[in-house]
């Protein structure tokens, strides 16, 4: 009998597998980044399909078999792409870029609940605040800095170090960050090169 794992997660990407199944790349709170198979997910009658679209935020149930992870149940809280599409194209593009970066940097099957909670808080901030232009660019820089710091790729940092703690970001933080963004981008690029994953 297989043990069932229940955890919150973000669907980052998927690809076809076999005749009707799919493999999903999901960043979960308890299990980290996992690649999980959903049997017959491409079939018209699939109950899992609606809850497993890219950028869905939800709760998932997995079992680990001899051939890897399998999804047995999924419930979507919301789909980030659909919600942000009503707000701005720029926000959607940010989510796409950040998801791609997560897939490149996150190690598989390594739990990181602190990072998960930080990203979940940032998602709510993104949804609840009107971010355009410099504010959105500042938000993206801060989100990437947090990611790199959490994974141990960021150096000593600069004046923005206080923004990388576990506290929630505020609109005022984005205004303060404007004068630091150029230096922060330089540190981000150095850290990505040092990671040798990009």
SSE order, one letter for each helix or strand: EEEEEHHHHHH
Mean pLDDT: 92
What oligomeric arrangement do these chains adopt?
single chain
Give start-end ranges of low-pLDDT stretches. none
SS class: alpha+beta
The order of strands across the largest sheet is 1-2-3-5-4
Gross morphology is globular
Q: Sheet bearing the most strands, described?
A: 5 strands, mixed, barrel
What is the end-to-end distance?
Answer: 40 Å
Q: What level of helicity do the residues show? A: 25-40%
Number of strands: 5
Q: What count of domains describes the coordinates?
A: 2
Strand content: 25-35%
> How many helical elements?
6
Radius of gyration from the alpha-carbon trace, in angstroms: 18 Å
Q: What's the layout of helices and strands?
A:
Blueprint: E1 4-17, E2 21-28, E3 32-38, E4 56-65, E5 68-79, H1 80-85, H2 89-105, H3 113-128, H4 133-150, H5 171-177, H6 181-195
Parallel strand pairs: 3-5
Antiparallel strand pairs: 1-2, 1-4, 2-3, 4-5
Helix pairs in contact: 2-4, 3-4, 4-5, 4-6
Account of the 3D structure:
The protein has 198 residues and is an alpha+beta fold. It folds into two domains: 4-79, OB fold (Dihydrolipoamide Acetyltransferase, E2P) (Beta Barrel), CATH 2.40.50; 84-195, no CATH class. It is 40% helix and 26% strand. It has a five-stranded mixed beta barrel with strand order 1-2-3-5-4. A hairpin with a 2-residue loop joins β4 (56-65) and β5. It is globular, with a radius of gyration of 18 Å. The N and C termini lie far apart (40 Å).
């Amino acid at each position: 009998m297989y043990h069932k794992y229940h955890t919150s997660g973000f669907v980052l990407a998927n690809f076809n597998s076999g005749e009707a199944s799919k493999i999903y790349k999901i960043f979960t709170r308890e299990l980290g980044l996992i690649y999980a198979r959903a049997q017959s997910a491409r079939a018209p009658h699939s109950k899992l399909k609606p809850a497993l679209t890219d950028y869905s935020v939800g709760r998932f149930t997995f079992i680990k078999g001899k051939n890897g992870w399998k999804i047995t149940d999924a419930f979507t809280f919301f789909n980030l792409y659909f919600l942000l599409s009503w707000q701005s194209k720029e926000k959607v593009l940010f989510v796409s870029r950040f998801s791609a970066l997560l897939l490149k940097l996150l190690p598989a099957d390594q739990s990181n609940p602190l990072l998960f909670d930080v990203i979940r808080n940032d998602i709510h901030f993104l949804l609840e605040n009107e971010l355009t232009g410099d504010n959105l660019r500042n938000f993206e820089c801060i989100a990437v800095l947090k990611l790199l710091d959490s994974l141990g790729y960021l150096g000593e940092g600069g004046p923005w170090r206080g923004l990388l703690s576990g506290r929630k970001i505020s609109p005022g933080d984005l205004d303060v960050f404007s004068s630091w963004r150029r230096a922060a981008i330089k540190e981000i690029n150095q850290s990505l090169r040092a990671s040798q994953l990009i």
